[in-house]
Amino acid sequence: MAETEEEVDVLVQRVVKDITNAFKRNPNIDEIGVIPCPEARYNRSPIVLVENKLGVESWCVKFLLPYVHNKLLLYRQRKHWLDREALVDITCTLLLLNPDFTTAWNVRKELLQCGVLNPEKDLYLGKLALTKFPKSPETWIHRRWVLQQIMQQFSSVSRNRKKQHQAEGEQADPERIQQIRDQLARTLHQEMKVCSDASCRYPSNYNAWSHRIWVLQHMAKGNVKVFHDELSSMRLWVSMHVSDHSGFHYRQFLIKELINELSQTPAPGSPQHRSSSVHSGSHSYSCSQSNGELPVAEAAAAEDADRQLSFTTVLQVFHQEMELCSDLIQSFPGHEALWCHRRHVFYLWHHWRREHQQNLNGSSNSATETVLVNSSDPGSPPSGGGVGEGPSADRPGHAAEAMDEDRALLPEPRDSKRLKRGVLMPGTPTLSTEHNFVSSVLDGCCNLEQRRFAQAYRKWLDTVIGQQL
Fold this sequence. Notes:
This protein is mostly helical. It has helices at residues 5-25, 61-76, 84-97, 102-113, 119-132, 137-168, 174-201, 206-219, 224-240, 245-262, 271-283, 285-291, 295-331, 336-359, 366-375, 398-402, 413-420, 431-443, 448-465, and strands at 31-35, 47-50, 53-57. The chain has a three-stranded mixed sheet with strand order 1-3-2. The longest helix is centred in the C-terminal third of the chain and has 37 residues, at 295-331. It is flat, with a radius of gyration of 29 Å.
């Protein structure tokens, strides 16, 4: 083992070079780790590469980490010169061992802005660091900065191409635009995978879930399909992590975003609805004069159909989420996260229903109004069985259907037809069905924690929701 300063320098330089060569030999390394080894037993490199896993023997870390740390600090203090290639290697080694060293990430930001590094390489380094340190806040912060650079690059390319085509009098290249969209979609998918792996490695990983929310807010804003897919894919994850509040908080965020996006269509009779109808009528007046059609009525009918489809989708989102809560609470008794999530979902449903009731006052849309009025009646549970009856009481095959990860959340055409006939969707949550669910849990439960959570939920229903009806 090295003892003198010269021997330590030689050793560390060789280890840094071995790490760099390992990435060159295998660019598909997907995990890093430290191998417990108190001392060097053989005259060989402490860097071990097996398949796609990179390991560092622990005995060399106490020499390696202080060396690269001091080298980088001397460089930042302008006391020691390092070329760009050496900076890339030193920061890579340092961040794999200590990803919370902010100075190293800042150096890599400068290298990225100078064009020495590409953003994908930095995302890859952060992904490897998160396999060993899944909660590293500095790594998540740097990833968001890199993603912002990627989005700015894509937007600038799109603007430049659009200006170029406009100057030449040509139309924008749809193939190039589609390529940019595909690249952004792949980046989004990779980020979802990184967040999912980090949340599995560390329970209640707040940094990973916060980053996941940020990615959707900045890279998928307004994309209803992405939020639907996320809500569907997360069903299996929360079913396997029933005590993780962070996962359920993420589902609450997805539900809120879906409600906001699906509720953008103005209600009939509102000022936005009237202005859009007037605008559509004036815009297509000449067309109606030529062919005798009624574009205003057709536009209103199409808008009404879209509004009913969005309304049905919101109902299904709440209905399926309450079913999931019921199934998990009955299958895994005594987990507070499940009861907190149910409380939050029902609170969202209660306020969304009240807002739509106010918007529909004086509306001519009798089909949608019928559903809202029936679902808001706390004393009359919906026909066809409610959420409170539980998935195992009268519908034995329904639990498996609700837990299907690939089940689509989008409504089917027959659901819109049911709305037009004024038939209430089965399973719409009400105060009565929630009381029935709590009673069924208390009647057949021997778990003390489960009983305590159920009683607290019933008290919340009476004191918070009951007083608002």
